[in-house]
Specification:
Length: about 1250
């Protein structure tokens, strides 16, 4: 808005008028709009007289006292002499008091000119000192240090004073604005646009608007420096946004900028101070420092950083899970697992541990402690449906840390909180906290655990723990191999009570039972648990530690068993194997222990005594170990107790035996029988060498009695006896005779077997008595007289002084019968009490030398698949006197096991069978599957060595199934330009995939509607072979492709047949219909039309209507029917057609004549017409109908009935009659002339 105002002689009125006007227009002031009304009521406050040395300049410049604006030195005297004037006068006053208000002129005026002009205005009375109030800026003005102007603009004080070039008001203003923009970080142009005002010439109230915007931009600029928003910056400065935005520029300088600088310093400290330095400043050792959280070092007042959690959230965009970790997780939880240099800054360490933005924590432990469950689930593929998992499982899966004694410190859990934290899932924790699953997945794992602890305090967690308690109870029982029945036996508590125990209570019972069962002294030591861990803590272990507890139990039990096996029971140690209340054995050892040397260690127990790998034993499930303990370890311990504490005669007495009755048995055999200990185990237990073990494996008790221990040694324990045998010399306790061997083998065809009787020792070599023994035979399976020559008692005599051995020969009888090896006994006895028979019995085995063979008898080696049961005969060739079992096996050559069932898998030939033929039954599977002929081989086998020949029979199964095929469609239509006609043929009714290829013969047959040679021009395929391959299944389709020739001739639709036949493949059956019709639809245009759209004919004449091919070329005959339709007057009686249809042969173009005869009917009528149209079922295009017009050739004769007529004088009219001759179908109008005759009177 531009207002032109002439200076009035009455300024007050003018000003009053303008006051009302401009008050309304204040906020939209333009450079041409002058506001006076704001100056009226301001109080007068004199400004001090400034010396010529300038330090600050008032902003805005327009209302700055002239005295404060740098000026040339030459004007100092004038200003000082008029100090009151220049202390109050402003550039605004210079403009306002001027007669002509030229703002641009003022702005472009030098400061010196403004000073001179103000004095001139005063002298002219246009400016009164006591009326000057613009300078009195109470709130919003700013004293801007001139040093800042110099810094920003590069102008010196002399430049600002106007040396060497004068400085205009606008130049000074621009310098000030440039400086303000730099100091307060704003863009004046943007503020001017937003306020729709210029900043070059302002009063305080207007400047207040600018100052408020400058404050906003200054605050936002500092917020941008930190990467935060203005509200967040206010929080960082411990104030609010309204307070910041209410600041003046002076407040910004004195408060905001100072506080912001302090904030930057604190931020810089956090980002540069090392963790080592933070420890030192807080006067903490490294260990003490690691026990603090990151928030401690960021927020401690002594650290000068003094950030709270919200500060860190704002400055570094850390999210809720990260902030929780910063506030609650001690650094030790991270530093024990993550590679972190304490020489890094607090921020660098924080980024490594908590991540920031897109930067992730450097190790998995840090990640899972500082990121939400959603993020953890996304990062670790092994974690799915994380809300259904428990806290410890999540931690283990993410970090691969599986030790509870490590993770409890990391997660800040008490050592006895393991199972309690493990039982509830994350979703259970959410429910206990009245939150949903989506919320809990936004929390970190430490937050979930904290919520879990809080819910336990409030009591909301209990019911949710019960949900998973049964699962963990069952897992507990399974892990330790206990059943409720066993626990009932141990505790005498009812099932109802046991099944309602907490997991911890049940675990305590089981651990106590295991400690008792395996006599374990300190289980916690084996678990490597830190500190003092009692049984209660062990019972609270999470389930993933149960397996380690099982290993510890096994290790403790195994070590206890090895210790027991090392004890010397004869030296005072005592071992007892007793049963617990649940019936399970336990090993008890008295405190007074004396050990063998070397001792049995766990490795010896595992590898030597049990033949196991020690590591494998420790890896066993507890039930498996307990089985090993009961079946293997306990018997060894019990054997040790027996061998070391029980006398031999007591052991024999339990079986009603005395020592002499076991003389023929070896020492090792008897030891093993009564102690269960093998020679190998004796070596492991007592360190005996292999030579001694071989010795006791060979020496009999008789030998011991005769040559080693002559006294009543049977009163000693077996261990004592064996120890004595170690060093006992060879002596003669008796005269000893023995068979040279306890067994002999002889071939049936050898004829004889020679038995040796040895004189082993003589009690007193000086005695010159003969020594005699009696030798006899006894049948076992061999028959005396049939298989060997039975001998009566035969006396074998050793003459006095004779040594060595005597021989006895027995005849062996040979036969031709295949039989088992047969045995008989040779026995020697003596009636002399001083003679001991060591080996008194020898078993003679007659080895059979006869053989038989097996062969097949098969009616036919080729059988039909639908035969069903097929029977073979297996023939034994030769005589037998034993059962011979023969296994029958099928070797699939091309068959598989689904093609048959072998009903006879074994046969046995017995001596009592009359027939030596056995039937073998094979059931052929009629499987409805199309397959080739398949072969299998039947092979007999036997372990009987007397069967020396077997044969294999090969059977071929001839398939009787056919592949049924059919056309996919029964009819097909293809356009002539299709290129290739594709017809589908598919398999149907298959019981399974084809097992062989089958071929279908395809024959294309022409329909004899055209000459065959012409039809063949349309096709390029007459027959083919279609193959379905092995593996094809029901509805597998093979396509018949028939190329179709596209020509340019119009033809009627052509048809041909496609016939499917099995051809030469007897495995194919074609389903009806075997033949389908294929129609080729012509695509070539052609048209037959009348040569004219209308024809004329007179009644009785013939109209020749011409037809011709008006478009295209005919490639086949086309028949066109001619059809007439009545016109408006013509009917069927008015015309006849002589040719009802017209045929165009292939290649013809016409014209062809259609004759229509118009009937001559003797009836007078109008000209008539009718229409003629064409029709054809050939598909050809037909032209429009034609009209035929019939011209009538008949007349009507009209005449007067009377030639003369009379009329009476005076009548007005005379009547004349007419008559018409001839039939007429239309009205006939006759024109007549009226003649009026006027007669004149005579």
């Amino acid at each position: 808005m531009v207002i032109t105002l002439l200076k009035s002689r009455n300024p007050p009125k003018t000003r009053q008028y303008l006051t009302h006007l401009f008050c309304l227009a204040d906020l939209t002031m333009t450079p041409n709009l002058v506001i006076w009304s704001f100056l009226v009521s301001l109080a007068f406050t004199p400004a001090p007289v400034f010396p010529a040395t300038f330090t600050t300049i008032r902003v805005p410049l327009s209302i700055a006292p002239i005295v404060s604006i740098p000026r040339p030195d030459s004007l100092d005297e004038e200003v000082i002499n008029n100090s009151e004037l220049y202390a109050r006068a402003t550039i605004y006053d210079n403009f306002n008091a001027s007669v002509i208000h030229d703002l641009d002129g003022v702005l472009n005026t030098s400061i010196s000119s403004v000073i001179s002009n103000i004095l001139l205005l005063k002298e002219r009375g246009l400016l009164q000192v006591d009326m000057l109030t613009a300078f009195n800026c109470t709130t919003w003005c700013l004293d801007l240090p001139i040093s800042e102007i110099a810094r920003v603009t590069g102008k010196t004080m002399e430049n600002l004073k106007g040396n060497p070039d004068p400085v205009t008001v606008l130049e000074m203003h621009d310098a000030i604005i440039e400086t303000l923009e730099d100091v307060y970080c704003f863009d004046m142009v943007l503020i001017e646009k937003s306020l729709n005002m210029f900043s070059k010439f302002l009063l305080e109230s207007q400047w207040a608007l600018f100052a408020a915007q400058i404050v906003i931009q200054a605050v936002q600029c500092r917020a941008n420096i930190l990467g935060v928003n203005a509200t967040e910056l206010a929080e960082l400065l411990r104030t609010d946004l309204a307070t910041l935005y209410g600041y003046t520029l002076d407040n910004l300088n004195k408060t905001f900028f100072q506080n912001f600088l302090q904030l930057q310093v604190r931020k810089n400290l956090f980002e540069t101070r090392t963790l080592d330095d933070a420890y030192a400043i807080a006067e903490l050792t490294e260990a003490q420092g690691e026990g603090k959280t990151m928030l401690f070092f960021a927020g401690a007042r002594t650290s000068s950083i003094n950030f709270n959690l919200r500060d860190l959230e704002i400055l570094y965009d850390w999210q809720k899970p990260q902030l929780f970790a910063i506030e609650n997780i001690p650094l030790s939880s991270y530093l024990s697992q993550c590679s972190v240099k304490t020489s890094n800054s607090l921020l660098a360490v924080s980024k490594l541990l908590f991540g920031q933005g897109a930067t992730e924590p450097t190790c998995n432990v840090a990640y899972v402690l500082s990121r939400s469950l959603n993020e953890v689930e996304a990062k670790f593929n092994a974690l799915t449906a994380v809300e259904t998992q428990n806290s410890l499982y999540i931690f283990m899966t993410a970090t691969s840390i599986s030790s509870w004694f490590v993770m409890d410190d990391i997660l800040q859990l008490v050592i006895n909180e393991g199972i309690w934290v493990e039982i509830p899932s994350a979703s259970h924790v959410a429910s206990a906290a009245s939150q949903n699953t989506s919320f809990i997945k936004t929390c970190s794992l430490p937050e979930v655990i904290a919520s879990l602890k809080n819910s336990n305090v409030t009591g909301t967690l209990g019911p949710l723990l019960e949900i998973n308690n049964p699962t963990f109870r069952n897992l507990l029982l399974t892990t330790y191999g206990y059943s409720y029945n066993e626990l009932i036996s141990l505790t005498r508590a009812p099932l109802s009570q046991l099944s309602n125990l907490s997991v911890v209570e049940l675990h305590a019972i089981i651990l106590g039972a295991l400690v008792d069962r395996y006599s374990i002294s300190n289980l916690s030591l084996l678990l490597d648990a830190p500190g003092v861990v009692d049984m209660h803590v062990l019972s609270t272990l999470p389930s993933f530690e149960w397996s380690r507890a099982v290993i510890a139990v096994i290790q403790a039990s195994f070590a206890h068993a090895a210790d027991a096996l090392s004890l010397n029971l004869a030296a005072g140690s005592r071992i007892v194997v007793t049963n617990q209340a649940d019936g399970n054995p336990t090993i008890l050892v008295n405190p007074s222990r004396v050990y063998f040397s070397p001792r049995v260690n766990t490795s010896t127990l595992a590898t030597c005594l049990l033949g196991r790998n020690e590591t494998d034993i420790y890896a066993m499930p507890l039930p498996e170990y307990h089985t090993l303990f009961i079946i293997n370890i306990i018997p060894i311990v019990e054997g040790k107790i027996i061998i070391e504490t029980t006398a031999l005669e007591d052991l024999l007495a339990e079986n009603n035996l005395v020592l002499r009755q076991i003389w023929n048995r070896t020492v090792a055999e008897v030891v093993s029988q009564y102690t269960g200990l093998t020679a190998q185990q004796l070596r492991c237990l007592y360190g005996w060498n292999q030579f001694f073990l071989d010795f006791i494996n060979e020496i009999t008790w008789g030998n011991v009695s005769a040559f080693r221990l002559c006294g009543a040694y049977e009163k000693l324990a077996l261990h004592r006896i064996l120890v004595q045998l170690l060093t006992a010399p060879t002596v003669n306790c008796f005269t000893t005779i023995s068979l040279s061997s306890s067994s002999y083998g002889v071939g049936e065809s050898d004829g004889i077997v020679t038995i040796f009787v040895q004189l082993v020792s003589v009690l007193d070599p000086k005695v010159e008595d003969n020594i005699q023994v009696s030798l006899s035979t006894s049948s076992i399976s061999a028959t005396g007289g049939t298989d060997f020559q039975q001998i009566p008692n035969t006396i074998v005599t050793f003459q006095a002084g004779e040594t060595g051995q005597k021989t006895v020969t027995i005849n062996i009888l040979d036969d031709k019968i295949a039989e088992n090896d047969e045995q008989f006994l040779v026995l020697i006895t003596s009636s002399d009490s001083d003679t001991i028979i060591l080996t008194s019995t020898a078993t003679i085995t007659i080895l059979d030398n006869d053989f038989v063979s097996l062969s097949w008898q098969v009616p036919d080696n080729s059988v039909a698949e639908n035969l069903g049961l097929f029977t073979f005969s297996l023939i034994l060739n030769g005589e037998i006197e034993k059962n011979i079992s023969v296994s029958i096996a099928v070797n699939d050559l091309t068959t598989n096991s689904t093609d048959y069932s072998l009903l006879t898998t074994a046969v046995t030939f017995t001596p009592c069978n009359v027939s030596s033929t056995k039937s073998v039954h094979l059931l052929i599977t009629n499987d409805q599957i199309v397959e080739p002929a398949e072969s299998l081989a039947l092979t007999p086998s036997t372990t009987d060595a007397s069967v020396n020949t077997t044969s294999t029979v090969i059977l071929t199964i001839q398939d009787d199934d056919k592949a049924q095929v059919e056309h996919v469609n029964t009819t097909y239509s293809f356009p002539e330009d299709i290129g290739t006609a594709v017809l589908g043929v598919r398999l149907v009714n298959l019981a399974g995939p084809l097992q062989t290829d089958v071929n279908v013969s395809v024959v294309v047959i022409a329909v004899e509607q055209e000459p065959k040679e012409q039809f063949n021009n349309e096709l390029t395929q007459a027959s083919s072979l279609l193959t379905f391959f092995a593996g094809d299944v029901n509805n597998s389709v093979r396509n018949i492709s028939i190329p179709i020739v596209d020509d340019s001739l119009f033809e009627v639709a052509k048809q041909f047949f496609v016939l499917l036949t099995p051809g030469f493949d007897d495995k194919v059956e074609v389903q009806q219909p075997t033949q389908v019709t294929v129609t080729i639809l012509d695509n070539d245009p052609a048209q037959i039309s009348f040569t004219s759209s209308s024809y004329n004919v007179t009644e009785g004449q013939t109209a020749a209507m011409m037809l011709e091919v008006t478009n295209g070329t005919l490639g086949s005959s086309v028949n066109v029917s001619v059809n007439t339709q009545d016109g408006s007057t013509a009917g069927k009686s008015d015309f006849t057609t002589t040719i009802p249809s017209v045929t165009f042969l292939a290649g013809e173009t016409g014209p062809k004549v259609v004759s229509v005869v118009a009937v001559d009917d003797e009836i007078v009528e109008h000209s008539e017409y009718f229409t003629v149209s064409l029709s054809s079922n050939s598909g050809i295009s037909l032209g429009p109908q034609a009209s035929v017009f019939i011209n009538d050739n008949d007349d009507v004769v009209v005449q007067f009935t009377n030639i003369l007529s009379s009329v009476t004088e005076g009548s007005r009219f005379a009547t004349v009659q007419l008559s018409a001759t001839g039939e007429r179908a239309i009205n006939v109008t006759v024109k007549y002339v009226q003649v009026t005759i006027l007669f004149e009177p005579l």
